[in-house]
């Protein structure tokens, strides 16, 4: 393993030109290639006046190129968390332009890092105070901007390197999670680059793709949803470590995945706002969470807040309920707001409701979560403007419209039409009655 490098030294001379940064199938992408690609994109960005640039990439290698070029150019990378054209148009006020490997048509400058550029300039240092902008759903349903300084990103990687760095020597990094969110940014981009580990530029979408990685020891960055879908009839890859996050991993799924991969699954607890907070290894059922040494949990009247050097404001209130034991470890007891995890994606029920109310046929809406076949899915209770077209046709139209704005897992699977949203004696929505509308007849 290379010496740990902070982000502003990733392009330095410490690593040889033939050092493998990433790979696309059988093609290796070296340190020399990275320097050249970053310099070219840097030159293009310097010719643009905008300060905030959205990074929208399928390829993790091209994302690394854009991240470094943007920071060295003294600009701010913005991670919208998606590549949906319609939503990027709506969010145009959040950035001046887009750097992407997709054929996006937007009303702002769009740069493709593969566009040939003749001039190559020396790179200035990354400015002090530089950082990355991400977004997370707030309780209002509207995206909340979160700034992560380069210093905090480096410090987070250093914590993880202290915990697992020796075990990861010479691993290649493959992932079934996107680099466009905090978890993927940390483990698919920051940690491999800091440790000098080659990462797969492509996303692992199917178990067969994971099983095909049979020639090198792997660090596999995954999620409970993917681990649940593992096909244990396949030949397992050589996996030295598996990390899961973005949702609670059930003990039985962890046990099954660990047996097939040959290594217990390690799990990370954290949020976009706080970065990593705690970890655990699934050696047996019911393992508690161990906070990172620098993280302090503070009990409050309505829950918990956390103090951490990785939090820009120093302290952040948590959406989860915790139960600590005498050893200083803790268990998670569920969430306390209307932000839910569906297929390990953070989904705002308020945001779904807001989008439903933009549809011309819908007068009022309430969204809840339902359990169907062991999965969590959204259900929508809606009040319609009358008259309306046949419901089957409306549902098809609604799903098509919502797909422009919402993740597929956030589009309601089940619908109920009512004359008015039921309220309780305090004129607040009667959530129990809303659930009862979806009760299945035995």
List key phrases describing it.
single chain; 442 residues; alpha/beta; Rossmann fold; GMP Synthetase, Chain A, domain 3; 2 domains; 6-stranded mixed β-sheet; 4-stranded parallel β-sheet; 11 helices; 25 strands; 29% strand; globular
In short:
With 442 residues, the protein is of the alpha/beta class. It is built from eleven helices and 25 strands.
The CATH topology assignment of the largest domain is Rossmann fold
CATH class value of the largest domain = Alpha Beta
Oligomeric state of shown chains: single chain
- Sequence stretches where pLDDT stays below 50 over 5 or more residues: none
Over the alpha carbons, how many angstroms does the gyration radius reach? 23 Å
**Alpha plus pi helix count:** 11
Helix content: 25-40%
Number of strands: 25
The side-by-side strand order for the widest beta sheet comes to 9-11-12-13-14-15
Q: Give the name of the CATH superfamily of the largest domain.
A: ANL, N-terminal domain
Gross morphology is globular
| Classification by helices and strands | alpha/beta
- What composes the largest sheet? 6 strands, mixed
Query: What number is the mean pLDDT?
Result: 90
> Architecture of the largest domain, according to CATH?
3-Layer(aba) Sandwich
End-to-end distance? 58 Å
How many discrete domains? Answer: 2
Strand content is 25-35%
